[in-house]
Amino acid sequence: MLAIGLSYKDAIAIVAVAFFTVSIVISLNGAIGVLYHAPFPVLARASWGFWGSYGTASQSDARN
Questions:
Q1: Helices 40-63 & 8-36, crossing angle to 10 degrees?
Q2: What's the pLDDT tens digit per position in 5-29?
Q3: Which of 11, 14, 39, 62 makes the best surface tag, with the fewest CB within 10 Å?
Q4: What is the DSSP string of 3-41?
């Protein structure tokens, strides 16, 4: 971000907002799993379908 002309304060603020936004999304995803007692791959099938869930589940496994 510094290469495109932002100051280091702007870059730190953007990273902080991005981390906060991602943490909200991850928390909501976890809350749905706790509420319905369903793991992430099952919830991914509901939104992405059977074959589309393979990509999201493999990315989830790669992070763990």
A1: 140
A2: 889 899 999 999 999 999 998 888 7
A3: 62
A4: GGT--HHHHHHHHHHHHHHHHHHHHHHHHHHHHHT--HH
Phi, psi of 6 (to 5 degrees): -85, 150
* 40: Cβ contacts below 8 Å, ≥ 6 apart: 29, 33, 56, 57, 60
Distance CA 38, CA 3 (A): 43
Nearest-angstrom CA–CA distance, 8 and 4: 11
Distance set, CA 23 to CA 3, 4, 6, 20, 49 (Å): 26, 26, 24, 5, 25
CB contact at 8 A, 2 and 11: yes
